[in-house]
Write a structure and sequence with these properties.
Elements (H helix, E strand, L loop, with lengths): L6 H10 L2 H25 L6 H4 L2 E3 L23 E3 L8 H6 L10 H27 L1
Antiparallel strand pairs: 1-2
Helix pairs in contact: 2-5
């Protein structure tokens, strides 16, 4: 069994929460995603600005932009937000992040996720706790 970082357990707990409480979590989720995206924008290499402009936050039930990294276009599940980089014009985000044989890596995506994860998780957990208390 692969380590999913507790995702399956989290999803099970989220399904047990009433819909009203799940809806109350969305503002904290989106605020956290935008904060991490802001960190990414500050860390991304700025040659022409196209890479920075391609950083997008996608909310629950919405589709991510085509050709976005990581993973390409997908519909974001309920109680989730996705931060993606890339578009039909910017298809080189992964090359910036990991480098190539001719250019060094200029990581910005995963370092920003690691920097913003702690605050985001605290905010989301507080919102979940509050939503559950109010739903009782």
């Amino acid at each position: 069994m692969s380590d999913d970082g507790g995702l399956i357990s989290f999803q099970r707990r989220m399904q047990a929460i009433p819909k009203q409480a799940r809806d109350a979590i969305k503002p904290a989720l989106m605020k956290s995603a935008y904060e991490v995206a802001d960190i990414m924008e500050g860390m991304a290499p700025e040659d022409t600005g196209d890479l920075i402009n391609s950083i997008a936050v996608t909310g629950p039930g919405q589709a991510t932009p085509p050709y976005s990294q990581p993973g390409g276009s997908m519909v974001v599940p309920e109680n989730a937000a996705a931060i993606t980089v890339g578009s039909t014009d910017v298809r080189y985000a992964h090359l910036q992040e990991y480098g190539t044989s001719k250019t060094p890596a200029k990581p910005f995506f995963w370092p920003a996720v690691r920097m913003g994860r702690s605050d985001a998780m605290k905010r989301i957990k507080r919102a979940i706790g509050k939503a559950i208390r109010e739903a009782k």
